[in-house]
From TrEMBL:
Pfam families linked: Motile_Sperm
GO annotation terms (biological process): endoplasmic reticulum membrane organization; endoplasmic reticulum-plasma membrane tethering
Claim: Lipoprotein is one of the keywords in the record: no
PANTHER family: VESICLE-ASSOCIATED MEMBRANE PROTEIN-ASSOCIATED PROTEIN (PTHR10809), VESICLE-ASSOCIATED PROTEIN 1-3 (PTHR10809:SF160)
Protein name: MSP domain-containing protein
Organism: Saponaria officinalis (Common soapwort)
Amino acid sequence: MNRKLLYVQPSELKFPFQLNRLSTCWLQLTNKTNHNVAFKVKTTHPKKYCVRPNVGIISPGSTCVVKVGLQAQKDFPLGVPKDKFLVQSMIAPIGLTAEDITSQMFRKDSDALEEQKLRVVFVTADPPSPIPEGSEEDCSPCASELDSPYRKNYISALFDSATTVAGEFRELLSEGQNNERGDEEEIFQMSESTAEPEDWDTVSKLIEERSCVILENQELLYELDTIRRQIKRSIGSSNVVIIVALLACLLGFLIGYVIK
């Protein structure tokens, strides 16, 4: 096959690395052929990365954007990262949908299979820009009114309520993540006791889903912490409008997660 089925950009995955912070980069898969192309994205560490979507079908002339998430890491990587990704592609049979794609379609012995390898690179993430603390006189033309004891007590009560809800939400997510880790042994026991291709597909999907759930939980916790820090800074400036807006954002964030 002289012509590549998919053009993959970039040629290497660069993750901005920070301890205890999740990281994300993006892949663009472009179909330059006149046929539908089925693809699958694999990684050497499926428990460490989340790939969405990891399989799919790209129509002629179209581009699929793939999100690759790296879970928050507790230690700095030693040496050059050995993690790698593999993009497999093949001309899709007529009528094939993304739900019909199985691992058996991307076997190494298939002559119709095309593969492109991508290496992982960790780059130093830029530190967050410091937020200047404005003087009290510049906070608001009504600063003296907002700094009254009644206002301060009201704001403190709002912040305490938000902190309590956020703490309970964090415990809920952490408990769910621990349960997922406990289920991992059961997943691998099933993989050892079965050898059918259909069972291996199921095990692979379970591992991939587990990684993505952990990554989504980390994203939620990060967004939650960001909102709490913004509320805390707003309390320092006694800006009631900003605080109410952030609290509304926090409540909407929590309600959205529960509905999801």
